[in-house]
Write a structure and sequence with these properties.
401 residues, alpha/beta, 5-stranded mixed beta sheet, 15% strand
């Protein structure tokens, strides 16, 4: 069995106001065989002071000394991981209070080389959408299952399946460093401008199966500074402008960039196939399904960019753009039918709070843990419950008329 020492990576850049909470969520871990590595991408704010304000021998600060692209900062942080296992969170995210202890036990029980799990979500008070500020979305599952990697990758490449969060990657997952070594090529692990998608696809396909925990061990924070959220909600965000200015990875030449998760998944997969063709052998994706899914993701701020990219993709591949638009207006029945039963039956909870109750993501993680423990063993609402309730409300409304 591999050593269960865990390196937690926190790549960051100019987000000192968020970083402290992420670090606090790490330092409450009741787990000694670990280190927390803050990789400061040459920040111009007081990030260094925030890190040095904590006194814990498990916390390390590293800085490349010059500004890197996001993927290169991930690579730099990864180079400091110790043998054992590695996990990465964002500077606006948090570990659940018992995350590392739980993962250590799970590794001991299963000897897994890769672990994934559902995410709890917390929307910071600077979230761009007012209605979502200071809200929590909690998954109340428990236990784990062992999943076939290629089957889950094929589901992900259907482009309607929770981005890549069902797959085990370094970002939001726990990965053996032996797997990282196996996937490194020319001294690099990451070979895409979208490191979370690339990592998830690569780590899944590098192992026959992986453990999927039904209990969340990460609380994903969504803030006004989140690169991913900014990229998918607007095309002129300052965060996105900086991301592209610093990016050193060329987008795959067979695709046209647009702010859609479907396009990012496809791009990461094609980059992986060019680096590790043996891993992706026998796995394909549909350009038509990818373009349709991208169009479904469009909002008022991103519609023009997505439609322009998809129009160009349709010309390159001999597909009718009008047919793609028509298909995008239809519900993704095939994708819904391909989801596993446990996705519909997994209990969940939505919580609206105030800044005084939950001021940051570290407090949100503690609150989420307390609520989850209190609700263990009770009957809780799941997707199926909510669906039945919606249908019954509609039927009652019609009867009243």
């Amino acid at each position: 069995m591999e050593k269960s020492f865990i390196s937690v990576l926190i790549p960051t850049k100019d987000r000192a106001e968020l970083l402290g909470a992420a670090i606090r969520s790490c330092l409450v871990q009741n787990y000694d065989d670990c280190q927390f590595i803050v990789s400061d991408n040459a920040s111009s704010d007081h990030t260094r002071d925030v890190v040095h304000g904590f006194n814990d021998p498990r916390l390390r600060y590293v800085n490349p000394g010059r500004r890197l692209s996001m993927a290169d900062n991930f690579e730099f942080a990864l180079s400091h991981a110790a043998p054992g296992y590695v996990l990465s969170i964002g500077d606006d995210d948090a570990l659940m209070p018992d995350a590392l202890e739980y993962l250590g036990v799970l590794v001991g029980e299963t000897a897994a080389r890769a672990i994934a799990g559902p995410l709890n979500f917390y929307h910071w008070d600077n979230q761009p959408i007012d209605a979502l500020r200071n809200t929590l979305y909690l998954c109340l599952g428990s236990g784990f299952t062992v999943k076939n990697s290629r089957k889950e990758v094929r589901r992900t490449l259907g482009f309607n399946y929770s981005y890549v969060h069902k797959l085990p990657g370094i970002y939001y997952g726990l990965i053996s460093t032996r797997l990282v070594e196996k996937l490194s090529c020319n001294g690099r692990f990451f070979h895409s401008m979208t490191p979370d998608a690339y990592s998830a696809l690569a780590c899944a396909l590098a192992t026959e199966d992986f453990v999927y925990s039904h209990k969340p061990f990460i609380l994903a924070g969504v803030s006004g500074r989140s690169t991913g959220a900014s990229q998918l909600s607007s095309t002129n965000s300052p965060e996105i402008s900086r991301f592209f200015q610093e990016n050193t990875h060329k987008f795959h030449e067979s695709l046209v960039y647009c702010p859609a998760q479907a396009m990012m998944i496809a791009e990461a997969f094609l980059q992986l196939r060019s680096i590790h063709p043996q891993l992706t052998e026998g796995i394909e994706f549909s350009i038509r399904e990818m373009c349709t899914a991208a169009l479904r993701e469009a909002n008022a701020n991103t519609r023009s960019a997505i439609e322009t990219a998809v129009s160009e993709m349709s010309k390159r591949n001999g597909v009718s753009f009008e047919q793609l638009k028509k298909a995008s207006r239809m519900p993704p029945v095939r994708a819904l039918l391909s989801k596993e039963v446990d996705e519909f039956l997994l209990p969940h909870l939505f919580v609206q709070s105030s800044v005084s109750e939950i001021p940051d993501v570290a407090a949100a993680a503690v609150y989420a843990d307390r609520v989850t423990r209190a609700l263990v063993g009770r009957r809780n609402r799941n997707w199926a419950n909510n669906f039945v309730q919606r249908i019954s409300r509609k039927l009652r409304a019609r009867l009243v008329r």
